[in-house]
Amino acid sequence: MFEHVKNDILPFNRFLFRLFKFYCLACALLLFGILPGVIGFMVLDDLTLFQSFMNAISLLGSIELPHPPQTAHSHVFTALYSLFIETVFFLAVATLLAPVVHRIFHKMHLQTD
User: Fold this and answer.
1) With the CA atoms of 103, 104, 106 and 110 taken in that order, what torsion angle do they form, in degrees rounded to the nearest 10?
2) Closest residue by Cα to residue 85 from 44, 40, 45
3) Can you tell me the distance from the alpha carbon of 69 to that of 91, in angstroms, rounded to the nearest whole number?
4) Distances in whole angstroms, Cα of residue 98 to Cα of each of 83, 89, 107, 111
5) What are phi and psi of 96, to 5 degrees?
6) Considering the entire predicted model, what is its pTM?
7) Quick one: DSSP state of residue 33?
8) Which end of the chain is less enclosed by CB atoms within 10 A, N or C?
């Protein structure tokens, strides 16, 4: 996926394409991470699709829920889903930053040779 340490650094236009691919992958991670929250809020709290989406996005942004949980089951789901979506968020950020960090380390290694 990344060039080997003994290879030359990737040209800038190919690097931008790689960055775009990783951006798309990070967005896909976030979308697939939001999906269980939307379904869970729809099933457990009988919310509409839009209300469930707003709750899932609110947990992703770590803000107060616009439609708070009503039952004990939905409170537990909200706590577990909050842990899950924060983990997915950090994975998406790491995925987005991976090509940039690799390029920096690759340039540093080339400068020492």
Assistant:
1) 130
2) 40
3) 26
4) 23, 14, 14, 20
5) -70, -35
6) 0.84
7) H
8) C
